[in-house]
Sequence to fold (779 residues):
Amino acid sequence: MLTLTINGRTVQAKKGSTILEAAEQNNIHIPTLCYLKGKHKAGACRICLVEVEGAKTLQASCITQARDGMVILTNSERVRRTRKIMYELQLSDHDRDCLFCKRNQNCELQKLGQMLGVTESRYDGERSPAPSEKTVAITRDMSKCILCRRCITACSEVQAAGVLNAQNRGFETVVGPAGGLLLDEVACAYCGQCVAVCPTGALTETDALTPVINALNDPKKRVVVQVAPAIRVAIGEEFGYPAGTSTTGKLAASLRAIGFDDVFDTNFAADLTILEEGTEFLTRVSTFLEGGKATLPMLTSCSPGWIKYFENHYPDLLSHLSTCKSPQMMLGALIKSFYAEKINVDPASLFVVSVMPCTAKKFEITREEMEIDGLKNVDAILTTRELAALIRQFGIPFSELEDSEFDRPLGLSSGAADIFGVTGGVMEAALRTVYEVVTGREFPFEGLRLEAIEGFEQIKTAALTIENPLPAYKALDGLEVKIAVTSGLDGARKLVDEIRAGTSAYHFIEVMGCPGGCIAGGGQPFSHDPLIREKRMKALFSEDESKTIRKSHENPDLIALYDAYLGKPNSDIAHKLLHTHYVPRGLYNELSE
Amino acid sequence: MSDTKIVAEKGESKEMSMVVKPQTDSETHPEDYQEIIDFIDNYYAGRKDALIQVLHTAQEIYGYLPLELQKVVAEKLDVPLSKVSGVVSFYSFFSTKPRGKYTIRVCLGTACYVRGGKKLVDHLIKKLGIEIGNTTPDRLYTFEIARCIGACGLAPALMINDEVYKQMTPAKVDKLLAELEKGETL
Fold:
């Protein structure tokens, strides 16, 4: 332990702490801006300056080590005056159109100014270069960038995508892709982890509220909505619920109150994905064991950021990806075929909106492969944050709504579908079904949970031996099925590099593009709670456990859908509607065109 | 800069030793970058930490660092292109545009600045008819400013390619350029 004096108080701090951490351990608050606990410290903004006795200048407490005997003032007149100046200098090169900024009242820079008591901006000078662009998924407005570099850490270290970096120098510095290229000219996965950490409105999701509201106002459109599993355990945060509260009933009710004509659940398609992907996996393994040609390991394909990353970095390995579309694309395709026929409307008059925890989904719906007969499977993607904004704009009293349910037939789901929103969940859901299909016996783990693949470790692995299978799967007898689960693109890269090197030990790998899975997707409510992922994960597991049906293949509406429309998994019509192919993009596609 | 020659004020004895490859207007193709690929393979294979050395060598070979060339370096060293470009655009020594045969760098470090570096810059802008960072249309001169070349005792100094010229004045600049151009026509 270290002993030091902060603001006249003798305090103890853990060895190796920075001054900021030492203060925190003693409930002394030092304001910060660029710092992001546990994720990013750069000492870039100098807001966390403190006075250290004996030091000539003020020190950035987020990067200065605390030492025994230090005497520190965190809030002296000199510190407060300087901090305000630092803040005002930030503002002098910042767009101040806060009233129409997407981050208005949810902006760290704005909150800080209020906290510091800044009431004027005394500096007005030249403005640094501020390129902006609007891709289908992410909008960059560098006039609002404060150069904190959190997005660079998210992109280059956490995600290993390396798309964003500081370009140029000094006043000319801009955070962006190489050589002034735009995001859609480089290998950006659109995962949105940069958006999730941006303290201001410099990086935001590209707006989809306008097209959705236009569709809602169009009497000729029937507007159908679906929501991803991870939304129900996060959107409550936008309406004052503590993190980790499930608000599934209020979510369904609020969508109906907004005026969506059909309120469906992507969960239904998650169950569907399990049957399609599970069957595909069994076919690959059986073919392989019988000496045929099959690509293993098979990689999951639900996460569009991950898919884009894979197409950019591993265009030679596309056959490893499951051909399954992501659940929301499957549901979109079904809404415009099966459901349109069922309710007897022209599919062209349907407008499908998906509410997703994800920015990459906004890119996914624009892919050519996601059209059938000239109709897009899904017409618009709202992030969780955007849906919250829509609920507010429509004056819906979210917390006062009476709980409601999703519409059938595309709204009923098993517990296995709920856990699609968290790392390990797709694999766990798949195993519950695949094991039972192959052996005729229930997945042999307590509570149907496989703890080895749950949680936030970067790479999790497990092996499962198949014994006494049903006659149809005799070839699989004694096979030790090896699986791996990862979330975040850095972990994915490690596992795929093994495939490329020919050393991968696995049959089946689940990948989610964002660390922790969709619960921590780039479209989720902003949160700096270090335990946010745990809280949302637990809420999803409770959703799963609260259901009577917990295995995808037992979803009665899904069974009925196969009986009435799809035939069996991987049938021709299933392939037409629910499966896709991939594009070998390559890393430097921006230069070859 | 350890191998930089400090040349006498008059500079008549100096020879332009730096080899600058002829530039063409057409885009250079990746297969043209074999020399830097071999260089990396021989000395710095997989060495992410060698980025700056490799970029220096690449610029020496090709004269400048277009994005296509940065891409080759990024791929060979397994460093994201955004980072390579970040380094290239950070250091004023690196250029992404084709360069002239002679690169003039006027030092604007503190000592040179106070002793008249700025006057040299203004003079050169007028004389060459180009702004800082640009190259004359005949590709003879690239004009840049430098942040302290470590020759503070010789202020104000400028460099032409690898050579430092000390205690310069606008008149001396004119004389120096005239000599270079005379050499060109011979």
Notes: Chain A has three domains: 2-116, 132-205, 215-593. The interface with chain B takes residues 156, 161-169, 176-179, 186, 587-588, 591 of chain A (CB under 8 Å). The first helix of chain A runs from residue 19 to 25.
